[in-house]
Amino acid sequence: MKLLVTLLLISGLASALTTPDYEKEARWASFIEDGLMDGDVVWIENGEKEFLSILTEAESDSNKVAIIVHGLGVHPDWTGVIQPLRLSLTEQGYHTLAIQLPVLANGVEGKEYVGLFSDSDKRIQASVDYIKSTGKEADLLVAHSLGATMATHYFSNTPKHPFKKFVAVGMNGGSVPYLPSVDIPLLDIYGTADIDPVLKTVIQRREAAKNNSQYVQRMIQGDHFFNEQSDLLTQAVGDWLK
Length: 242
Known about the structure:
The structure is a single chain. It is built from eight helices and eight strands. The protein is of the alpha/beta class. An eight-stranded mixed sheet has the order 1-2-4-3-5-6-7-8, with helices on both faces. α4 (117-133) packs across α5.
């Protein structure tokens, strides 16, 4: 309990001190807009700032949308995990909205991102509001790595969210303080050769989610980015959604 309180206090203090690297986001946006092959760029209002997202239509008639959030310092068309999932889920009856989360400069460690959690909460909620404005439903939240920590933080601070399912890929110990707040079906999926912060917190994550009867933890072949194993990852996620 003392550790949990300390982590939450640190989170609150850091949130007041950290500003996203908007120039880096602009560079990512330019890169995506110049080279996007599948989907359409959508800019979403978030207070005084807009952020980029990629909307990809489902292959069949559907009202369901999967919001997809990336990991440390990257973007919504990242080829590791994010792009394969945002495309494959359109075959599972989901429109996908992959969103740009706040980022920091290259080389900044993950712990420094705690100060961006409030901003990430707002971006996820702004994405939910955008989807609602189109007449569709934010049904599924998919997150990778640090994005999974940001997603669990969002759940812990947004009890009236619309999501019905949550897929966390390569979730690490940063999510442990927030997992008790997640009460929807949750797939905690990670690789056999994943990074230490993921592999060394398997038991802690499972314990933190013990009151969620719909929590499933699964290990499959792959590293943290599922290099050369993206088909296996997308198939495992698709099977769980069925």
